[in-house]
Design a protein that fits this description.
alpha+beta; two-stranded antiparallel sheet; 3 helices; single chain; 7-stranded antiparallel sheet; about 210 residues
């Protein structure tokens, strides 16, 4: 297997364009795992644009399947005193495959805080059944997960709630922002717990708030 950190380290620049080669073990059916495409956009952006403040949000559109050699081209859209906006396009075979817009901003003091939703009480990781199962999604072998909620996937649950312990098998990945970004796309949408039979699902957009 090609570890997440090794894949990120292999990203190379040629002028303003960054190159990477995505191996088969990061595939999700006929395309690359979307979280990896997003992570590559962020990794190239971090190298192309210096002195960025903290990442606050990111939106990605998956235009077409991704596989093999890819190029990533970050473009600074605007930079202010405390914020920066970057567009990153990932292409395969010369065609745009993933389009990302990343928003960075410095922290600001606020008189409001919302911390009234505590972490749920769940069993420790490793004490419940594994979340990932062998299948067509080869990328799952790079992650370790344990389902700890009352609701299970495709169980006809009454509410769309999914509680899972998740982490990279590559310990170096957990110390990087692209690693955290990729981890956020590993679980399916929570409504999967309400299904009574598996259905084909492909993400066309994905977003995250940090």
């Amino acid at each position: 297997m090609t570890s997440f950190s090794a894949l990120m380290d292999s990203v190379r620049a040629e002028g303003a364009i960054y190159h990477a080669d995505i191996p088969e073990d990061w595939q999700q059916g006929r395309t690359t795992f979307g979280g990896l495409s997003a992570a590559l956009c962020l990794a190239a952006t971090e190298r192309a644009v210096t002195d960025l403040p903290q990442l606050r949000s990111a939106q990605f559109t998956f235009v077409q399947p991704v596989a093999g050699p890819v190029t990533i081209q970050p473009r600074l859209l605007r930079r202010g005193k405390s914020s920066a906006f970057v567009e990153a396009g990932l292409s395969t075979a010369g065609n745009l495959a993933t389009q990302g817009v990343l928003s960075f901003a410095a922290a600001r003091e606020s008189q409001y805080a919302y911390r009234s939703h505590p972490m749920p009480q769940v069993l420790p990781p490793g004490t419940t059944p594994p979340f990932f199962r062998a299948g067509k999604a080869q990328y799952m072998q790079h992650f370790e997960g344990y389902a700890v909620g009352a609701e299970r996937l495709v169980s006809g649950a009454k509410r769309p709630e999914l509680l899972v312990w998740l982490r990279h098998r590559d310990p170096k990945a957990m110390a990087t922002l692209p690693g955290v970004l990729a981890l956020g796309d590993t679980p399916p949408v929570a409504v999967f717990t309400m299904l009574t039979a598996p259905v084909p699902v492909s993400s066309i957009t994905w977003s995250i708030e940090m």
